[in-house]
Structure formats: C-alpha cells, structure tokens
Here is the input.
Amino acid sequence: MPYRPNIPCKHPGCGKLVAYRQKYCDEHKPLHPETKRSAASRGYTSKWQKESKRYLRDNPLCVMCKANGRFVEATVVDHIVPHRGNQKLFWDKNNWQALCKSCHDKKTGTEDSTLTYQY
Here is the structure.
C-alpha cells in the first residue's frame, strides 16, 4: 500500500517537507504551541464562557457587518489584538469585539496567515 507524500511545513516561508498529518517542521514547532494546547489551557475556560456570553448579551450585533450596513447577530467574542497567551490582553474588555462567525473566521484567517514570530 502506498504512503501519503510529505507536505510542506505550514510556517510562512518554510519549504521543508514534513510527514503527512504534521503541520510544522522540527525547527518551527516551538513557534506554534497553539497546535498542541487545548482551548482550556489557552484560557478559554468556564470563566471565559460566562464572560463572553455576558458580552454578547450586551453587544448582540456583529460590529463588522454593522459597519457595512447589515445587522447580523454576533456569536463570537473576538480579541481585536490577538492575545497570544498574554492574560492581561486576554481579559481586557476594551480588546473585545462582537463578531458573527463568518467575520471572525475571515479576521482570524488573515491574522494567522501573517503572524509575527518572536525567536
């Protein structure tokens, strides 16, 4: 039975090949700890669930859709500036915004494709 071919490392600019079902080469794995950690270990605990539900009750509309003249229910509390593990930034309500899933996925996809890495 044939094996699956190796795939390129997903770190921007890296062309090293890694085994199928792995995302990053050994050099770049330490820069992507989010691929190994659960949501709870990244701070998304029951406390976050309560606070985000409260925030969505107070801010029921997607801010990006509203800026474009559409009124869409917000379902996700987004961190405007990605916290990347910084607890102060994580819990700063001035850094939160209500988004619909579509807008959140677009924003997060754009941010994650242009990450700034610290070596």
Remarks:
- The two ends are 40 Å apart (CA to CA).
